[in-house]
Structure formats: C-alpha cells, structure tokens
Design a protein that fits this description.
single chain; 5-stranded antiparallel sheet; 4-stranded antiparallel sheet; disordered N terminus
Amino acid sequence: MIKLLPLPLLLCGAAFGAPAETVTFNGQIAAIIYKNCSWCHRPGEAAPFSLLSYQDVAKRGKLIAAATTSRFMPPWKAEPASYGYRDERRLTEGEIALLAQWVKQGMPEGSHTNAPAPPKFASGWMLGEPDLVVEMPAAYHVPADGPDIYRNIAIPLGLTEDKWLTAIDMKPSARSVVHHVLYFDDPKGEAHLKAQQGAEPGYSGMRAGASTSAGGEPLGGWAVGAQPHFQPEGLAQRVTKGSDLVIQYHFHPTGKAEAERSQIGLYFAKKAPERTLMSVQLPPVYSLFSGLDIPAGDKDFVIRDSWTLPVAFDAVSVGAHAHYLGKQLKMTATLPDGEVKTLLNIKDWDFAWQDRYIFDKLVPLPKGTRLDVEIHWDNSAENPENPSNPPVRVTWGEQSKDEMGAVTLIGVPHDEKDLRLGHGEYLSHRRSMAAERMLTDPATRAKVRELLEQ
C-alpha cells in the first residue's frame, strides 16, 4: 500500500531527505501573489506597497512568508463555514508552503518563458467604470489627534428616475483616517439641506438621514480590508428619484492631519429585482440593548442573541462588526430538523480588517430556522489589541475605545410576499429588546436619548 505524504512535506522533500524541488517566482509564486494579493497591493489601493512584479515581491519575500505562515495575510478572517464564500482570499497549506520554500531557496525568479502576466486593472475602480460617480462637496479635515469622529456627508444624486443599486465602491483620498463608512439613501433628498455643523462639511452623529426617524435607507458600507462586490444576479437595492446619498464616516485620527474628499462609484442594474433585500442584525444596534459592559481584566466577556425566522429566507451574505476588544464572532443556523449550520465564524477578530462575506450560492434557510449569535470580547492586559494599559471598564459607545458588536445577515425572503412579515417580526424583536433594556438600565436610556438628539 502506498502512503501519500502531506503536500508541504512533498514540497520540502523532507520525507526521505531528497533535494527539494526548485520553486521560482515565474513558475509558482507569481500566480499566488497575483490572485490573492495584487488587488490591494497596487498603486492607489489600501496596501502600503505594490506586489506587481518579481522585484516587488522579492523585496518583501521574507515578510510575505512570515505574514502568510501566520495567516495574518491575506486579510480573510472568516473560518471555513458550512457554505462556501465567493472570492475567498484564503491560501491553502500548499500555497503557504510554496511561499516559505521559495524564500528559503533564495527567491529565484525562474524562466520567463511561461511567466504569467501581471494583472491589468481596467480602471481605477475595482469593479470597472461605475454608472455614476459622485464626490464629496468639500474635503473634511481630520485633525492629527483627538477622539474618533462620526460625520455625515450628504450628496444629491440628481436622479430623474428610480435606480437599482447592485454595487457601490469608494475611493478615499486619505485612506489612513477612514476606518469605515456606511451608505444611506435619503429618499426625500433633504439631507444635504441639513445645517452644516461648524466649519467642516456635514453634520455629526450616527443618524445619517434627514427624512426618516430610521435615518435613511441603508445601502451597505465600506471598511478597511473590504472588497467591493456585485450583488448576486437579480438582486439590487432601490435608490429613489431625487434622493441624496448620505455617507456616514468613521474617522480615526492617526497622528497626522489629513484632508479627506472621497469619490463614490455606483453601479446600477438594468432592471428592477424580483425580490427585495432584507437584513437581520443580532444583537440589534450592535449590542446597544444587550448589556455590553465589560469589566477591566475580563478575558472572555460574552453576549448572545437568537431569533427565529418567521418565513423562509435565502441568505446572500454575512458580516460582523466590533472594536479593538472583539475576539470571536459567530453566527449559526439551527434548521427545523435540528441540524446546525455555521454561517460565519471569526476566531481572531481584527478591528483593522472588516469584510462582508458573500455566499457562493444563495443559502436556503427554512421557516423556523433559529439564528444564534455569540460575541466574545477580551478586556485583559494579555490582549495585544487592548487600547488601554492597564485595562479599564468598557461600555457600548461610538468611539474606537468603546465597544460594539453584531453579526448581520443579508438576504431575501424566499417569497416576496413574505417581506413585510419577515421585516416586521425582526423589528418587533429589536423593539422588545430595546424596551426591556431601557426600562431597567438608565445608562442605556441616556445613550439612546443622546443618539436621537444628534
């Protein structure tokens, strides 16, 4: 019987002391780098250096080997789940072994005969040229120091008819200070009329819109490490005629004053979708009503939330959010027959890398499926990401040194006629949690009043 050796051992020739196969940049390494790294590691993108040539990669070879061996790079935080994700940037054990072996062998370039060509990017936009590009009316000046800033910038879109948004992308002019943004459609087109607060454009706070108590219709967001994606075929979000696009910025001062004036690219579907997207966030409002109050030194503070789907639901994507103390965020689905499926599991959260994970295919979740979310925070001195030394008590808040936490599932009711029921039942869950917490916790009541007054 022939025993097959693990791929890394075969690559290294370690099993019998045989000489290792020569690994070259043109032969094996370029394809790995171009597929998984070059999208960000190129001029104008978030990464601090380019990886588009042999010289680029060889210069950083040791760093690349160390970062991939530790799985710090590529920035893909989701563990393998019960359903595959589109465009995974997870390297295989074999690819990681190849990178390490190439560096060990002195990073040879190899023959140019069959060298893969560097990737070409059709435009400065990762998804190609947008259907509509808008720009902030003026730059927002982020100071070198001070607390984090939440600022809403409204831009009239000038649409003369309803459009259906299938993707959105942004080009920050000062990436280092833009931690994340949320997009909203203000359907009445009045957000840009809201009084500017101070010398800088826009207005403060976490309520983005001017027209509705909910703060406008959410259109998604962007965070460091996230990649833009088109919605699956046949799905899109309405952007109304005459509306404003409201961009809610989370600015994080970095020690250097910056002027940020983004461009936003919008991509429209050719026709209206047959089904309407709906989001389910657990715990609601990023754990505002869940007793998020982490004692100093607590190594494993946990919050859980559950909700049972009142209608059949087809999941499209899933994503998570927390701040520096977040460690593990997980969402599972317990099907009516008792089978448990993992939708998202992030075991080593990183505030600097946030992404939305789009499923390869729509995930059918039957009526009666229970969604369970658990979030873990580490407020101990052993947590290298803890911004406070020594640790201090941390509660819910907007600043990066405060905390939040939630997992958000986006999808469509299997039957469009069930949209109102599904959305209404979720809002009831959120309202019941809010009412219970506000009745018993003065601090939560005060925080909600503060948010509503913004």
